[in-house]
Every structure is written in structure tokens, then in C-alpha cells.
Amino acid sequence: MYIPEQLPNMASSSIIALSPAHAGVFHAEGITQESTKKATEFLQKNHERYHIFFNSLGFHNHTAHYILTAWALDATPQQLERAYNEWLHVQRPRDLSSGERKTVDLSNANTFLSCFSKAEFFEDYIRFFDGAVARNGVKSVLEEYLFSGTELSTGLFRRLFASFLHPLIHLGFGLEFRQPAIVVEALAMTAVHHDDIGQVLQRAEDSSAQSRSKPMVDLIQDVMNSEAIRSGSGFKDGFNDEVTSFDAPEELISIAGHWQVAVEELEMKTAEMINVNAYFTGAAQRPTKKQKLDFFYMHNVNCSIFFTDFLSQDLLSLEAKVKLLAWKGRFDVVAYGSRGAPKLDLREIVDYKPKIPGSWEDLFHRTNDFDDDSHLSKLLRALANGRTVCEPFESKFPDRFPIKGTMWLQLAHMALDSMDNEVYFDRWIRGAGFDEEWEKVPDRACI
What we know:
This protein is mostly helical.
């Protein structure tokens, strides 16, 4: 018999109900009831009205990410309203068919599989997972549709890592903030993504059976040292949806397979993944150019915070937590290689001079006033979480944890400074290992 899960207020498979008592694994102090009410209102509107893609190219509706992160960083009701309205003009209706076709029966496994990767069935998947979660609860649905090992669950699980982790990020938000309706969105979102990166990661999973475990920082170094991998990740369109915009070299797949996770090291390896994500995102600079962070690497960091929540998450089995972390770490290694495996220099972070020195709280206030689309605010919250989570391991495993102490705040300053006063498409670099991407970035001497 299904026993209802402990949720804030009246949160359900179709109702958003935030509570300051469930404001995330990292959040600012002083979140008000007024902000909570406003954030809940906007999330409910987004859930009921809008598709997960705001165009036919598969660009993501980030409203849920933006509102939840801004709320967790103590945004005012006015700041939340600006955040909600900022991208409202591009959103598309949740049901792209406008009611012109019959809904499909996704309770039939063959139909469920046949609708994979097709954006027009997002509404159908929403309705299906809404009903499943309402009947059986989040935990049971996750186990059946992501971790049971069936053809259907394997296909859905592999799609979690698509489109530089957006489905997994969305699921993380739903679990961390205890919102079943956002979990429903995440599962529907996962279903309408493609499986390209899932196929790459399955190869890395298969390779891991013949590999010994190695620290992630060593794997990143192995990728950096490989001329075959760097030459294999030839420059493509910077907006490519998948890390498989290149033909993933077998050597890269083999290196990724060396990231392995045992149950007894789950906490340490979670922190290790978070730390190394921050390292290759921040240290991938060109010494003669203005500091820029890679748009794609940034997603690895932004996703990392949810693994802190997964550690204590009662809606995931221990086996599920291990599998998620194993696949996330392999994704990180493949993603690093896919963007040209840039040279990493830790001094870029250590020696960075902030434009406006300040505390974490100062950065959060600046970010809540920033014309963001969720990416920057998510990054700062993830970095602040990383500082806390990694601290117990930094002295015990110094070689495995390159980011230490004040470097977290330094990197957060670099992130905000690199985007301040920039037009939207110039805020990030898209492929930090590619010369072509750096050509348009100003020289440091000219700043």
C-alpha cells in the first residue's frame, strides 16, 4: 500500500507548495513568507501553462530553475517577478497540439517507447507521470521508471544526461525542494530528449568492468594529455545540444570508465566530483584573454549541488545514488574532452582579483539584481555548496581536491565579473579548448 510521502504543506504531483523549511541544501538566511508565496505562484503558473522547450530547437524553459534558485538565495518578491517575466515572451504552451489530437496511451510500454525523443508528446508524458506519482508516490515511480532495469527504464535513465544534463538538473530541483510536480516535469522532460550521450555513457559503463578506479582529477589530466582526444573533438557549432557533437574517441570512453563509485565512498566521491567540476570550469582560461567560463562546463557544476541532496535523499535507493554518481562522473570526463580538453591553470583562480571584493552574501545580492536566466545564480549557489561540502576532504585528500578554501569565493567572483556588462551571448565561452572561441574575447591588456 502506498503511504503518502512527507511533503511541505500541500505539495503534490500537480500542485507546487514551497516552504522555507525545505529551501534546499544550500540557501540564504531570512527567506520570507512573501517571497515564498510569490515563488510558489510563478512555479504553479509555469507548471500549468508552459512547455519545457521554448522553441523547436530544444532550448530549455529555465523558469523553474531560476525561480527556485533566486528564492533560495533570498530574492525579494519584486526580484522574483522580474525573473519570471524576463523570459515569459518566448514560452510556448505546454500542449503543442492545442488539443487537436487525441492523447496517447503511455501505459502501453511500446507506445511509451515509441514516443521517446518527441517534443510533441511532452503534455502526454506530463499527464502520465502526474497520474503515476499521484497513485504511487515519487519514490516508487523513480524506482520503476529510472532504476528497475527494464528497456523502458534504461531508455529513460540514459536520457537524464542529455542536453548537457538539463533533465537531471530538473529532477534534482524537484527532489531537493520536495516538489513532486517538478519531478513530474523532469520525467516528462527526460522522455522527450534524445539518447546520444546516453549511448556514449553506456559504452563507458561497459568499459568500467575492465578498469580500475582512478581519481577524477587524474582522469581529467589523462584527457588533457591526449592529442588523439583533443584532435578528435573538432570545433563544431557552439550551440550543439550534445557533448557528442564530435565522434567520441574510444580512448575518451576508456578513460571515463575509470570513474567508479563504491557504496562506502559515496560521500567522498560526491565531494570529489563537485570539486573537480569547479576546477576544470574555472581553470580553463587563456592567460592573455579576459576570464570567461565555458557555458557547457558550467552545467556540470550547476548539476553537482543536487548530489549533495541525493546523499540524504530518502526517495532514492542506495543503489540509485551510486549509479547516478557513477554516470555523472563519467559524463564529466567525456564533457571535458568534448570541448577541446583545455589546459587548466589553478593560478587563474588563486590569483584572480575581483572587480568588487565582497562576501558570499554580497554576491547573492548582486546576482538577484542581475539580468540572469538562471545560469549564473545556479552556478553561485553550487559553488557556495561546494565550499561547504568539500572542506572536510581538502586536507585529507589534497591531490584529489584541487579547489580549496578561498578559491571557491574567488571563482564565484570570476563568474559574476566575467558576465557583468556583457550582452547575453558574450557572457560565456562555448568550447574553452577551441582557439576559434577565444578569438572574439577581449585581451586582458585591453580591459
